[in-house]
Amino acid sequence: MTNRQELPNQFLKPDISVAIIILAAGRSSRMPSDAGHKLLSTIDDVPLVRRMALRAIESKASHVYAITGFRHEEIEACLVGLDMTIAFNLAFASGMSSSLITGLNIPGAMDHDGILVLLADMPAITVENLDQLIAAFEMFGARAVIRAVHVGIPGNPVILPKALYHRALTLQADRGAKMLIETSGVEMVEIEIGEAAVIDIDTLDDLERFGGVPSPS
């Protein structure tokens, strides 16, 4: 059963721990080759991947992990000095699921009550959006899947409760968490966060709409 809720930000209970795993391993294949990697593109002079990491760190999350893959050395250079854990996904070419699995396998990651899966190419996601989702996870006792939506359209981020971690470790190919959350039988709560839930950067036009500047290869 799916509940659709609009929840305000609220005080977070200290006994529920939510970590954020930022997926930043993809090839950026839909960007023109001369535009470089989208996560290295800058918005307001800040690389996109760093922009998202800063928002994750500023949120109420207990810890932040970033999973890198394609051009990982450059991506990781953008994250230098930030209070987070970075892991390289050797199997990044196999799809998004491998990055989630890499994140869950980091020592201590599965100790958290929930994992918020954040795509690194969603520049409209704010600290407030992240905190709103975390607050909803707490409100539902850290037992439900929390999914961001826009006018009922499923989007991202998603929070997975601990009950789904071991199933997530069995995901294959580029299915991410979508199939898992829709077939798990765990209660799913949809949280309206506005257009940010469905906006990502895949093309040069997408980047330009945010005033972004590509980073040539």
Automatic annotation (TrEMBL):
This is Nucleotidyltransferase family protein. Gene3D superfamilies: Spore Coat Polysaccharide Biosynthesis Protein SpsA, Chain A. The keyword GTP-binding does not apply. GO terms for molecular function: nucleotidyltransferase activity. It comes from Aliirhizobium smilacinae. It holds the Pfam family NTP_transf_3. The keyword Ubl conjugation does not apply. Residues 21-183 form the MobA-like NTP transferase domain. Keywords: Magnesium, Transferase. It comes from the Bacteria. InterPro entries: MobA-like_NTP_Trfase, Nucleotide-diphossugar_trans.
